[in-house]
Design brief:
The chain has 34 helices and 6 strands. It has helices at residues 33-38, 54-62, 75-79, 86-94, 98-103, 105-118, 124-144, 150-158, 163-179, 184-198, 210-215, 219-227, 229-247, 257-263, 268-296, 299-308, 313-318, 326-338, 343-346, 397-408, 415-432, 435-441, 473-487, 495-515, 523-539, 541-545, 550-571, 575-587, 589-603, 610-619, 621-640, 648-656, 683-700, 705-715, and strands spanning 3-8, 11-16, 350-351, 394-395, 447-448, 471-472. Strands 1-2 form a two-stranded antiparallel ribbon. The chain has a two-stranded antiparallel sheet with strand order 3-4. A two-stranded antiparallel ribbon has the order 5-6. α13 (229-247) crosses α18 (326-338), α20 packs parallel to α23 (473-487) and α28 (575-587) crosses α32. The longest helix has 29 residues, at 268-296. It comes from Coregonus suidteri.
């Protein structure tokens, strides 16, 4: 039965000659998924077979062996005027194995070629349909041929001999669309296509097509999106995620141009734009968590806990998990790690405001995604400068990041949250190694009130946010580290996170010692947390040694005390602080004595831990000298004055009056540390992290029916 195309605005109806009106109806949006996948129109009666959409009939011609344009010279023009049936096209491609694809390879190559050509068309409907068809091609061919080599995939899609030219044309067209004055919806669709292309393989470094994305760079287009206020608002989130993924393509195997270019960006509006996108995404996560927390602690639950105490608090708060956003965190890491100029963005102040609960939705909608993975609302990213209100608390990207870290570091039992916590500590490591970052962290003229989230624990009350003082930002970093140390002493011990945490503290103290910065901080909380950590290691020696080298962590902790003992007089705020350090060591001497006995026992026996235990033994020399010097003096003072239990002030008096007879050893290298290096130590971690992010992005890339209809509606008046 012959058919003709009747163009009515955007929607094209199939007019069947000599058919009744009921047979000419187009499918409604409520068509079942089965019918959509098969490309069927609704059944008109029980006795008649369902009709196929015109576009599906044309797809079937492509999947036949003959050239579809052989009998219809306008075949390709007509195809791109049709609304794409993504479900059918992808399902058809996925149903073919490699051999079957090779039989129709010429037609697939021709489809790819004409898609690329259609991107240069003035008719916007054709551009939209070409972009969506390309996405279906990339996904469909990869899905069925996961075991095929990258070269085979390239050959199936575009023909290996023409691949370089086809991808050059494709990337140039995408670059023009992204940088041009055209529709924002088309720009969004271009970014979705690029995200689709980058994430079609689980391991992006095995996606050989990305070699052409390296050669034909769209780096400048991404920067333009981030530097422009209007485009950043609508596309900044996708642009930043795309850049983070491209930076991780074969980053250890070859020279990645995106790494090189990102490392030398010095354009202030671009860096600010990137920081604003990352900051608003993290702010959105923090807001969602806070809303969920308030929801959980209100109403009946609040009444119940007030009746029965806090015995269920830990269980209740485990349900507060908001899905982490590793993609945006990876983008922050790459910016901090690769570009020293980005460090200045961390400190730029702006008023602390909450993102509206109901964000403005972009024209091209995305599917519902888990909390924490959605981009922030556009209105929050549309302006580079926000009006300052003297009544508003100041904030910056670093504060937002610290608040985010305080949430994800609470519960590290989930793999995603464990990865996020690890990445947060790696980012903090990079920040604390940077001289400029250390300078503004310790700047007395840059004081902020940072309300970190604290894990509910039975033995302590929840701190009131209004009681948090305004202090240099380094205090918030130290608070975060202390909080982590105190709250994660468990049998499933996160050794890697503890190592990083203590190293961050060490680097901050090294800077304070070097610059003689006397920080007014509650150092006793840190000392108490570190001593309790040593106590935990001792109590769980057998269990922990089966999995971890606890002596390495113990050595780091003891050397932190050695830093305070040896150089504390140069960076502790007052002489009283130095006295309090000795008081804490003497007061908790039993833990240091037990640690010495344990490491001495292990170091005198043969075994794998002999050498690391021996290092701890040597590091304890000054701590033991303090204990052995002051304990007899304190006991003598108590005996002479007939006091059974001395007060803190009395012990401090003994300490102050007996410094002159104390002999300590000068220990070398206490203020030295190994600088962070991603390769080779962190390579495996980032490989798995990027794989996880890629899977999540692929799942959330939106090219669904709703976005198709919106695009077609938008462009229906243009043509």
């Amino acid at each position: 039965m012959p058919y003709i195309l009747d163009n009515r605005s955007t929607f094209y109806t199939l007019t069947l000659l000599n058919a009744g009106p009921s047979q000419c109806r187009m499918p409604k949006t409520a068509m079942s998924q089965v019918e959509k996948k098969a490309g069927l129109l609704r059944r008109t009666s029980s006795s008649k077979k369902p009709l196929k959409e015109k576009v599906v009939l044309m797809y079937d011609e492509i999947f036949a062996k003959d050239d579809p344009a052989k009998n219809n010279s306008r075949f390709w023009d007509e195809l791109f005027l049709m609304k794409v049936n993504l479900e059918y096209l992808e399902a058809k491609l996925e149903s073919l194995d490699g051999d079957e694809v090779m039989k129709i390879k010429d037609n697939i190559n021709s489809l790819f070629h004409h898609c690329v050509q259609a991107l240069a068309e003035e008719h916007q409907i054709k551009v939209v349909n070409a972009l969506q068809t390309l996405c279906a091609l990339f996904r469909g061919v990869h899905q069925k041929n996961k075991s095929a080599s990258g070269f085979d995939i390239i050959n199936m899609l575009m023909g290996f001999d023409k691949a370089e030219l086809r991808m050059k044309d494709l990337m140039e067209s995408l670059d023009s669309l992204l940088c041009g004055e055209g529709s924002e919806s088309l720009k969004a669709l271009c970014l979705k296509l690029l995200l689709c292309l980058v994430t079609v393989t689980d391991n992006i470094s095995q996606n050989t097509i990305l070699e052409y994305v390296m050669i034909n760079s769209i780096f400048e287009a991404i920067l333009q999106i981030l530097s422009d206020v209007s485009t950043r608002g609508q596309h900044g989130y996708d642009a930043v995620v795309l850049l983070a993924l491209l930076v991780n393509y074969r980053k250890y195997e070859s020279v990645n141009p995106y790494i090189v270019k990102l490392s030398i960006v010095d354009d202030e509006p671009t860096l600010d734009g990137m920081g604003l996108v990352v900051g608003q995404a993290l702010t959105e996560y923090n807001r969602q968590y806070k809303d969920k927390e308030e929801e959980n602690h209100g109403g009946f639950f609040s009444t119940l806990t007030s009746m029965v105490g806090s015995m269920f608090i830990a269980d209740a708060d485990e349900k507060l998990s908001v899905q982490t956003n590793e993609a945006i965190l990876l983008a922050l890491y790459e910016a901090v790690h690769l570009n020293r100029n980005f460090i200045t963005v961390l400190a730029q102040s702006h008023p602390e405001i909450d993102i509206p609960t109901t964000p403005i939705t972009p024209v091209l909608t995305t599917p519902t995604t888990p909390l924490g993975t959605t981009p922030p609302s556009m209105d929050m990213m549309n302006s580079s400068e926000l009006p300052l209100d003297p009544n508003l608390q100041s904030s910056n990207l670093l504060i937002t990041f610290l608040k985010y870290s305080s949430i994800v570091m609470q519960d590290t039992k989930d793999e995603h949250r464990l990865n996020s916590a690890r990445l947060c500590l790696i980012i903090l490591t990079c920040i604390t190694e940077d001289q400029y970052a250390d300078a503004f962290l310790h700047d007395d003229n840059m004081n902020f009130r940072v309300n970190l989230h604290r894990m509910p624990m039975r033995h302590r009350k929840k701190a009131a946010e209004k009681n948090v003082p305004s202090r240099p930002l380094v205090c918030a970093v130290l608070d975060l580290m202390v909080e982590f140390i105190v709250t994660h002493m468990m049998k499933d011990f996160p050794m890697d996170l503890y190592m990083r945490c203590v190293q961050v503290i060490h680097k901050l103290i090294c800077y304070q010692k070097k610059c003689r910065i006397r920080l007014h901080y509650t150092w006793r909380e840190l000392w108490s947390a570190l001593i309790n950590l040593l106590k935990f290691l001792l109590s769980n020696e057998t269990v922990l040694l089966a999995k971890h080298n606890i002596f390495h962590l113990a050595l780091l902790v003891v050397n932190l005390f050695n830093m305070f003992i040896t150089y504390g007089d140069t960076f502790l705020p007052t002489s009283n602080s130095y006295d309090e350090l000795y008081y804490e060591i003497v007061r908790m001497h039993q833990i240091f004595d037990n640690l010495y006995c344990m490491v001495l026992r292990v170091s005198t026996n043969t075994g794998q831990w002999k050498e690391p235990a021996s290092k701890v033994t040597h590091s304890l020399v000054n701590v033991r000298a303090i204990i052995n010097h002051f304990n007899p003096k304190i006991e003598s003072y108590a005996a002479v004055n007939h006091i059974s239990q001395l007060s803190e002030d009395q012990v401090l008096e003994v300490v102050r009056s007996n410094y002159d007879t104390l002999t300590l050893k000068l220990q070398d290298g206490l203020d030295q540390f190994e600088r962070y290096s991603e390769q080779p130590k962190e390579a495996a971690f980032f490989k798995e992290l990027v794989r996880s992010i890629s899977l999540n992005v692929r799942k959330n890339v939106s090219l669904n029916t709703l976005s198709q209809d919106l695009l077609l509606k938008e462009f229906s008046t243009i043509s």
